[in-house]
Amino acid sequence: MRSNNTFALAAIVVGMVTALSVAGGTAQAPPSPDQMVASLKQNLAESQKRLRQYEWIETTAISLKGEEKSRKQQRVYYGADGKLTKVPMGEAPQAQGGGDGGGRRGSGRAKQRIVENKVDDMKDYMEKAANLIHLYVPPTAENIQKAKEAGKMMVKPPQQGRVRVEFPDFIQPSDLMAIEVDAKALLLSALSVATYLEKPEDTVTLNVKFGSLSDGTGYTAQTTLDAKAKNIRVVVENSGHRPLTR
Predict the structure, then answer these.
(1) What pLDDT score does 195 carry?
(2) What are the pLDDT digits (tens) for 102-148?
(3) Are 30 and 196 in contact (CB under 8 A)?
(4) 58 CB contacts (<8 Å, ≥6 apart)?
(5) Fewer CB within 10 A of the terminal residue: the chain, N end or C end?
(6) Distance CA 202, CA 191 (A)
(7) Cα 198 to the chain's mean position, in Å?
(8) Does residue 30 have a pLDDT over 50?
């Protein structure tokens, strides 16, 4: 779910759509695997370079059984070393009690500790879920090539200007990864993953929405991870992009 993965994914998708000439209705022969990889590398480098000119706000909310348990914001940007940097923006302000707030404050602190314990209990599970999702996002060129060769890449007919490409059994049996691309602008618009941890009933889903800035730079607008077996949802939103000042 990392923002710097967005453009690796976008680059792969652009290369794929170029290769899948049938989706665009052209008669040109698709490029060779070597040409596709070269295109991916070029697109990735260009996209990463453009995003490094910006900083933005990342908001992460963790919910359990539909109730939000944790929310934090971080300032995000690429440092001079080229690594993604995240700086916490402070805790959300606490509600103020009344004049007899001694007992209320104690109750509030106890409630806060319960919330913190629940969040801590979720961390191990969410770490496993995140590690699994990272096998899919960004999808590697190697895995995409394997899917093509195995006949497990399906291109759906364009609808409303979008092309949907599905990859069943992409990493695990019975999983599904799907991407949607703006067929005209060749921009990644959405990605979804339906998979599981140790057992098929332990489902984990990921839905990613993408946006673009005024100069055409694409970014991950919202990422939603659902672990239905544990009733856990994590939503990460990126907003407030502005030119980076060092």
Answers:
(1) 93
(2) 555 666 676 666 656 666 667 778 778 878 887 887 677 678 778 88
(3) no
(4) 3, 73, 74, 75, 76, 86, 236, 237, 238
(5) C
(6) 20
(7) 22
(8) no
Q: What are phi and psi of 129, to 5 degrees?
A: -65, -40
pLDDT over 70 (residue 158)? yes
Tell me whether the omega of the peptide bond preceding residue 138 falls within 30 degrees of 0, making it cis.
yes
Q: How far apart are CA 186 and CA 43, in angstroms?
A: 12
Burial class (CB in 10 A: 0-12, 13-18, 19+), 111: exposed
CB 129 within 8 A of CB 227: yes
Is residue 17 within 8 A of residue 24, CB to CB? The reply is yes
Listed in sequence order, the DSSP H helices in 52-137 are 101-133
| Cβ 12 vs Cβ 139: under 8 Å | yes
Residue tagged 């990342």 (tokens): 58
Confidence of residue 194 (pLDDT cuts 50, 70, 90): very high
* Number of CB atoms found within 10 A of residue 127's CB: 10
pLDDT digits (tens, 9 = 90+) for 40-79: 455 556 666 788 899 999 998 888 899 998 899 999 999 8
For 22, the token pair is 């049938």
Q: Which residues pair with 76 in a beta bridge?
A: 56, 86
**Angle in degrees, 0-180, between the axes of helices 6-19 and 141-149, rounded to the nearest 10:** 30
Taking a C-beta distance cutoff of 8 angstroms, is the pair 203, 33 a contact? Answer: no
